[in-house]
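[Q] Does anyone have a clean structure-token version of this?
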Amino acid sequence: MHEIEVMTTASLGDTSYLLVSGDEAALVDPQRDSWEVMARCAEAGVRIRYALETHVHNDYVSGALEVRAATGAIVAGPARAPYAFDHLALAEDDEITVGDVTLRAMETPGHTAEHTAYLVLDAPGGPPAAVFTGGSLLVGGAGRTDLSGAAHTEELARAQYRSLHRLTRLPDATRVLPTHGAGSSCAAGPVARGRDRTTTVGDERRANPALTPRDEASYIAARATDLPPYPAYYRHMAPLNRAGPAVLGGVPTARRLSPATVAGLAGEGAQILDGRGRAAFAAGHVPGALCEELDERFASLVAEVVPFGTRIVLVLPAPEDSFEAEALVQLLRIGYENVAGVLAGGTEAWAAAGRPLRSFRTADAAELAARLDEVRALDVRPSRPDGGVPGTSAIPLADLPARVGALPRDREIWTFCDTGRRATIAASLLDRAGIPVRAVTHGGAATLPHP
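[A] Here you go.
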């Protein structure tokens, strides 16, 4: 028998799993910061035998090598995955054992060419109790097939169609344990938020829209076209995971930096990220800083506007020691490792050193609605299902860094989105460029006039 712990990383929309049988365990699709679960296993006397990968990940840095370094676990994964490090390659019907449980490989290409699912078998010859489906069959959806490039999208979509229908021939009671879920850009189309992270084959066969098309051609037409853009950092993840990311051994400690050092780093091209709330940022921030409120969406929004590999300086809410690990872990999960340090004492230390702070004005959605005919407003939502707000311009936040230089500078621009979060980041981008700006920090497009 076995137990399976579901471990969700909400900021990425992903789930890892700890399968335990007796005193042995396997970590499936582990995140880079799996140190806590490894420590819990050690305390409980459970040996992690395998770090098991369903595919080469495109949305986060794998923690498999961290697990191996800390526990001696074997890294196992798809036979067709071109990993540059030693691993146990698992092809169709290959098996590994964890305690009394057998895990059997089931090749399910589609989301990626090498994608492999794993059946969980409690008894030889018996039905599977569960299947780790990675980025193949999801709760209410399926993994997208365009992440390997346009030249492979149709081929992988055809493979995904076949893989999905192969998985749905498993018994109805088989528990489906996907890696990707709501909030992940690895899903093809929206995955319903609020639904469970796991499901069963029977439930998906009855209700999953990805299984509705009757033939391969219909599936491709319905699922493999008009996919939304995926985050720019994705293109760096698969090469990093194939090569094998650096082993950290735990959350690193960030250096404390003086105002003079931060100013020097900024002059050399480092990007200052301010994790305080939007009101505090607007009232006073280090020149050139971007407002990146430190919550579960912190790193994913950093990745929208900060190029991969950029050197980073953090300004954290007080007390800094309470927020440092969260900021660093979120960045490390997606490969943003070049963190020079933290501005010691934050903006108060900056001002005390005689250095100027910048600020910009803010408004709420009601103020914008009242003045919409007279102000220049910029919609920075990633999409506009409402068709957009008449009289406004629109640039998705992710596109704004490349287009900010073309914006007019003759009068103030009001930035808005749905909640104020992206609007404030956009305002910080404009402020960095010297463009007069006002951020709509509360409320957004839903309260504005529409066609």
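[Q] Thanks! Anything notable?
[A] The chain has three domains: 3-243, 256-352, 361-447.
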